[in-house]
């Protein structure tokens, strides 16, 4: 019983943390695109090639396009955060093993996979936006698939397998309860 109390307490903290992230992460995207012209180039070119930036500040139109494109991976990320937050709300209430847990794990896995592919698209679109004002021959399109994306896909696969195992365990438990 002591473990359940600790699970509830820790889950309450994680639920709060994911609630804060649901506000902070979208706010970060808004601030990033609203003030991109004022950030140092090293902060902007973290995931982009060495010479992609246009020599002048991004126009409001390009910043708006960039922000709208950023909503794609952001929506997948928010969906994943909502699911994880919901999982911890169940743990906070002491509900440890249910059919809804399986669905949450499956949805989280799908959101991770979607986030990877939408992030690749977003980073590629960002490289186009940042080099759009460069003269011909100096414009870039950067499409990247590296360790972080592979790691995220592996984690998504593991989460999906965990959901599958949990579902099998749930089915066996229900069958045992129904056996007289």
UniProtKB/TrEMBL annotation:
<feature type="transmembrane region" description="Helical">
    <location>
        <begin position="20"/>
        <end position="40"/>
    </location>
</feature>
<feature type="transmembrane region" description="Helical">
    <location>
        <begin position="150"/>
        <end position="166"/>
    </location>
</feature>
<protein>
    <recommendedName>
        <fullName>DUF2975 domain-containing protein</fullName>
    </recommendedName>
</protein>
<dbReference type="Pfam" id="PF11188">
    <property type="entry name" value="DUF2975"/>
</dbReference>
<keyword id="KW-0472">Membrane</keyword>
<keyword id="KW-0812">Transmembrane</keyword>
<feature type="transmembrane region" description="Helical">
    <location>
        <begin position="112"/>
        <end position="130"/>
    </location>
</feature>
<keyword id="KW-1133">Transmembrane helix</keyword>
<feature type="transmembrane region" description="Helical">
    <location>
        <begin position="60"/>
        <end position="82"/>
    </location>
</feature>
<dbReference type="InterPro" id="IPR021354">
    <property type="entry name" value="DUF2975"/>
</dbReference>
């Amino acid at each position: 019983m002591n473990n359940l109390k600790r699970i509830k307490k820790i889950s309450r903290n994680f639920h709060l943390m994911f609630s804060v992230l649901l506000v902070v992460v979208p706010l970060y995207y808004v601030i990033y695109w609203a003030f991109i012209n004022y950030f140092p180039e090293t902060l902007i070119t973290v995931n982009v090639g060495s010479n992609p930036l246009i020599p002048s500040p991004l126009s409001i139109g390009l910043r708006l396009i960039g922000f709208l494109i950023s909503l794609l991976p952001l929506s997948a990320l928010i969906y994943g955060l909502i699911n994880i937050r919901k999982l911890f709300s169940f743990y906070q209430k002491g509900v440890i093993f249910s059919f809804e847990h399986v669905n949450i794990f499956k949805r989280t896995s799908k959101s991770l996979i979607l986030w990877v592919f939408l992030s690749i698209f977003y980073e590629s679109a960002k490289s186009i936006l940042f080099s759009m004002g460069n003269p011909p021959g100096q414009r870039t399109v950067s499409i990247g698939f590296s360790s972080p994306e592979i790691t995220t896909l592996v984690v998504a696969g593991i989460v999906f397998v965990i959901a599958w195992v949990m579902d099998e365990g749930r089915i066996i438990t229900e069958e045992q309860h129904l056996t007289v």
